[in-house]
Amino acid sequence: MSLTNEIIEKVKVKNPAEGEFHQAVEEVMESLEPTVEKHPEFVKAGIYDRIVEPDRAILFRVPWQDDKGNVQVQKGFRVQYNNSIGPYKGVLRFHPSVNLGIIKFLGFEQVFKNSLTTLPMGGGKGGSDFDPKGKSDNEVMRFCQAFMRELFRHIGPDTDVPAGDIGVGGREIGFLFGYYKKLRNEHTGVLTGKGIEYGGSLIRPEATGYGAVYFAAEMLNVKNETLEGKTALVSGSGNVAQYAMEKLLDLGAKPVTSSDSSGYIFDEAGIDREKLAFIMDLKNVRRGRLKEYADKYSTAVYTPVDPNLGYNPLWNHKADVAFPSATQNEINEKDAQHLVNNGVKTISEGANMPTTPEGISIFMTNGIGYGLGKAANAGGVAVSGLEMSQNSLRYNWTREEVDSKLHGIMKSIHKAAYETSVAYGKPGDYPLGANIAGFTKVAKTMVAYGVV
């Protein structure tokens, strides 16, 4: 058995019932197999064993009072995975599905994603099983303050800098940052995704979606193609999906789908700027369901979720490019085959690990340009890193400056992944290229530090 396969088996034994974490480790370790022979110094230093173990995992209870005065208790997590190249950096997620395995999977992925950005950031992740949906602003505030009462002792601008993810938007970041300031009596860049008025960066809400599109454009550029005139399938309807659609329109493509937890819409005429503005108002302001889109626009068809179907019909439409931007494991083997059958040649992941291993295998077997999440969706954390820089400088760059820097970072990530895939004899194998490029930088740093 190879070294990397031994490590995969160890992880499964030592971390039972953490399926998402097992999946993330397996995907990375299989890509890293060629590095074992090329870098004996990594083997000698035990890097492969060390890289799968987080520096620490912090678990804590979060008691808070709802509007009726009842005490509720949630679980809180912060996994500080690896800070070899900079402070821990990674989002907070508030969702009922959050557990230790999911936080570890996200933190592990974040190590390599942050390495690829070229910015000095380590990897971490955190969150809670708290569900902000249906809660009043006062309930969300009381929960965020209770969460920060424990988290504040573990974070700092040079230690660990969280940001927002699913369930943690501008409202939540404001409550968290305000309470951190109160506890520490200092105004520092300890959180990113902040409001512009108190230290945030322009382009941060747009960054992940924009970055996924920029990465797709780079994959197409290798084939002497552009996004102009191409039809795009997009899942999700949050920030990532919304701004992916916006940038697709900027570059001449036509997005035709969007989804939420209830179902999806397919608009063959295309989601233009007027329709996108409707989606943004619907989801960001009115917090409504996408079915309203089909009620308003006769060109659209709404399909509710059918959990017994075994696949997602959103991925069963003719298109050229696809942007899975909803959640992990949303594309299974059947979905992947539908995408191939319907002419999709390029996939850029806006979400974290949205494709199952079986789906990835189908993409690779069929020569699909597959931009995996740790490379394609790194735009969000890249602009978070730029926000950290601006906070340190006590300065704000313009929208154009940040967007230009983001575009440059995504081009660099693509270049590193592509050139590494060429160096290892598999041109265009982005999973191999991105994983090895991200890992090598971290591994060399860990070797330099000694056994710590």
Concise synopsis of the structure shown:
The chain has 452 residues and is of the alpha/beta class. Helix content is 48%, strand content 15%.
What do you see in this structure?
By secondary structure, the chain is an alpha/beta fold. Among the domains are: 54-187, Rossmann fold (3-Layer(aba) Sandwich); 207-376, NAD(P)-binding Rossmann-like Domain (Rossmann fold). The protein is 48% helix and 15% strand. The chain is built from 17 helices and 13 strands. The chain has helices spanning 3-14, 19-38, 40-44, 47-51, 100-116, 137-151, 170-184, 207-222, 239-250, 273-285, 291-296, 333-341, 357-365, 373-376, 379-393, 399-423, 430-449; strands at residues 56-65, 71-82, 88-94, 123-128, 160-164, 231-234, 254-255, 257-260, 263-267, 300-304, 321-323, 346-348, 369-371. The strands form three sheets. It has a five-stranded mixed sheet, with helices on both faces. Strand 8 and strand 9 (263-267) form a beta hairpin. Helix 1 (3-14) packs antiparallel against helix 2 and helix 15 (379-393) crosses helix 16. The longest helix has 25 residues, at 399-423. The radius of gyration is 21 Å and the shape is globular. The two termini are 27 Å apart. 52% of the residues are buried.
